[in-house]
Every structure is written in structure tokens, then in C-alpha cells.
Amino acid sequence: MKVQEDKPYDDINITPMLDLAYVLLVIFILMTTASVQGLKVNLPKASNAPSLAKPKTKSITVNNEGKIFLDTVPVTLAELEQRLTQLKAETPDFPVVLRGDGVTQYHCITEVLDLLVRLNITQVGLATKPMGNS
Which of 29, 31, 100, 129 has the most beta carbons within 10 angstroms of its beta carbon? Predict the structure, then answer.
């Protein structure tokens, strides 16, 4: 019987490196899924529906005090109308997501919706939480 000599291991095992690469890929995918800028508000609940979130989507947020934000910039209703008119001139068919806090007075939301109708902005989504989340 011949005894094998101790040889250096000359094959590279890339399995741990690939495992690390896959884990990092999943982490990067999860971290970059934020789609629409906006402020944190307590959203009302509704059933699951397809999202209108696209790169050019504008977010209008009405917080629980009735203050209006375009993306994250505080605006008055008149300023909102001016900025949306300017955006509509640049991109006629851009989507808007309206985010209202669950305790916001209804008239604040309807004022913004009325403004969107007057400006003929037809792609409007109302942001809600899925039913399973609390």
C-alpha cells in the first residue's frame, strides 16, 4: 500500500464566496425598494392593489394636522396648484399618489382631490396599508 504524500490543496472553493454574494444581492434588493418619497403618516387600511409607484410619480401627503407636502416639501394649496400645473406642462400624464393620515379631516383630502380634478390629473392613487399590517 502506497501512502499519499501531503500535497497542497490546489483547488479554490468558491461556494462560500458565492453564498456571500447572493446574501449581499438580496440585502441590496431589499434596501432599494423604496419607491415614493414622502413623510411618515399613519395610513388607513385597504385591500392589496397594484401600486402606481413609478420613477416620475409625485407624492402628495396630508398629515394629521392638515398640512400638505409635495414629496417632502411643505406647500399651501395654492403653491401645490402652481407646482402641479408646472409639472403637467412638462409631463402631461404623470401619476400622483395621495397619502393621507388616517386621522386627517376628510375636507383636507377632498380639497387636494378637487384640485387634481381641476388640473385634469387622472392617474391618482390613494396610499393605504395592506389589511394584514397593523
Answer: 100
- pLDDT one-digit tens code per residue, 89-122: 888 788 888 888 877 777 888 888 898 888 888 8
Q: Are 33 and 15 in contact (CB under 8 A)?
A: no
DSSP state of 15: H
What cell was used for 88?
403637467
Q: How confident is the model at residue 23 (pLDDT cuts 50, 70, 90)?
A: very high
Strand ranges of the sheet holding 124-126, from the earlier edge strand across to the other edge? 73-75, 68-70, 58-62, 96-100, 124-126
CB 76 within 8 A of CB 105: no
The dihedral through the CA atoms of 78, 80, 86, 88 has a sign that is negative
